[in-house]
Amino acid sequence: MDDTDPFSAQLPQPTGARPLLGLTVLVIEDSRYACEAMRLLCLRSGARIRRADCLRSARRHLQVYRPSVVVIDLGLPDGSGIDLISELASGTPRIEALLAVSGDAHLEADALAAGADGFLAKPILSIATFQSKLLSLLPDDRQPPGPRLLDTSGVTPDRMAFQDDIAHIAEVLERWPDPRSLDYATQFLTGVARLAGDKKLEDAAVALAAKRALGEAARSETATLAGMLQERMSEKVAI
């Protein structure tokens, strides 16, 4: 495995305005909407970004190069991000910073126990929060010199990415309405809806998850959620 970024012979140094300059961040995230938010956060901070939407894709990336930072969503379509954290935490040479992210804050302890250097609860839209967390995980030679003015603004992901996520889950529920797919859909939609500020959709996903957790039939909740997905897919997005 190449332990350098093949696209940069000489890494630029971080600055107060772009404190993550010189870093390559691999973001492992199945939501296009959440990944778009992460792309904007990296862009505003000076970091380059690579993306993977599942564990399999992430492992292919990591066979080719070693990023400075890996941001790992804990709920992925082909397994748990915690498994990848365990692998990377024990790897040699070790990734400089492993950051776990999830909409389920109670997973923080599991992520840290597996070897993550830090944890951020979704949604992640604040530039200051993102920058401060990553900088807190990096060594002194990765810190920007002098004082740094905190950027208190946030990012606004492209709404088309939200529509793509909605269409993806609608297809999952239509083609594979098995228990595992239902659990994945509720976890995925809870995070995406929270990021988009769609409280009704979030509540519907949480209601379905609650029924699933009790082992009860959830036909009504599933039908309600499917109807809400169809409504959102029919919405026009301004371009």
Automatic annotation (TrEMBL):
Q: InterPro entries recorded for this chain? A: Bact_response_regulator (IPR050595), CheY-like_superfamily (IPR011006), Sig_transdc_resp-reg_receiver (IPR001789)
**What keywords sit in the KW lines?**
Phosphoprotein
UniProt keyword Membrane, yes or no: no
Pfam families membership: Response_reg
4-aspartylphosphate (modified residue): where?
A: D73
CDD domains, alphabetized: REC (cd00156)
Q: Source organism's superkingdom?
A: Bacteria
Keyword Thylakoid (UniProt): no
Domain Response regulatory: from-to ranges: 24-137
* Listed PROSITE patterns: RESPONSE_REGULATORY (PS50110)
GO terms (BP aspect): phosphorelay signal transduction system
What protein name does the entry list? Answer: Response regulator
Organism in which the protein naturally occurs = Sulfitobacter alexandrii
